[in-house]
Amino acid sequence: MAHGTLTHLIDASTAGQVTLDFPDNRLMIELCGEFDKNLAKVEQQLAVQIIRRGNQIEIFGEPEARTIAGKVLEALYNRLENGKSVEFGDVDRELRMTSAPELAKLADDQLEMFSGGNVEIKTRRKSVEPRTDAQKAYVHSLMNNELAFGIGPAGTGKTYLAVAVAVTKFISGEVDRIILSRPAVEAGEKLGYLPGDMKDKVDPYMQPLYDALNDFLPGKTLAKLIEEKRIEIAPLAFMRGRTLANAFVVLDEAQNATAMQMKMFLTRLGEGSRMVITGDRSQVDLPRGVVSGLTEAERLLKSVSGISFNYFTAKDVVRHPLVAAIIEAYDEDGRKAMIKRFEKRDAE
Fold this sequence. Notes:
Blueprint: E1 7-9, E2 17-21, H1 25-32, H2 37-46, E3 49-53, E4 56-60, H3 63-81, H4 88-99, H5 101-110, E5 121-122, E6 127-128, H6 133-144, E7 147-151, H7 158-171, E8 177-182, H8 198-216, H9 219-227, E9 231-235, E10 247-251, H10 259-266, E11 274-279, H11 293-301, E12 307-311, H12 321-347
Parallel strand pairs: 7-11, 7-12, 8-9, 8-10, 10-11
Antiparallel strand pairs: 1-2, 2-4, 3-4, 5-6
Helix pairs in contact: 1-3, 2-4, 3-4, 4-5, 6-7, 7-8, 10-11
């Protein structure tokens, strides 16, 4: 057997067992991780038992689970043979890829972010490419900053691109979870009066986030990830008291967060996490006199290093062309109203 070559043995005489033979002791140690933490991760995730005997690893458990575990360890060992390291996130990524082949295909064939310098995200339905300079700058900020703000009118791709980058980071193993949130602001109807349980009451507020995810992940895969809480979609109020580590977190419609809620949310940022805040200052549904958390955060954090602010205008709208015209008409009316207020004040 050549040095550095992995031999995968399935011992037919030993029921319920998969045996892996690793020839390189040094790589074997790196594969297992400190205190065998990588093996423990595989055991916990797949409900298998892994026993290490010298240069061999024996895997016991249900047939499908032990086969997946074997493939995961093979992939990680091959990674080490190619001179790459194996971090905890790499173990998590291989578990996801091997457990869900459709996710692996998505990662290999359908999600190419900045491949060859090309700013493009390919979804299972269509290619998504930032079309304007503002959108390209925004995607660049999302990829390179731990905390980023996207501020501008509806239809400019703020949330959609944020979800696209979140899925990219998740599939690549850079984060363990995706958490999408929105303020559940009541607009004319009290939540308590709406039919159904709490999930039924808040899901309509979250629907745009489900819609974005459905463009990037196959339905069955998305349902499984939500069930496993690898992807969470929850109202902003549910974020209180949590520390969001190793996650890509998106707060949508942030203009409807109060100043207190915004501070609470921003301080949830944990180790290894990234956070994106999106909002439209012209669509505040908060009660009169309540300060928007987005406006206050922009004022307080504008000069903080490591936080990016990206702004969009009607020129960046990617929906129906009439949407841009509608936004411009409202903006012009707002400018005229402001001029009148100043003229009236000066006259007084």
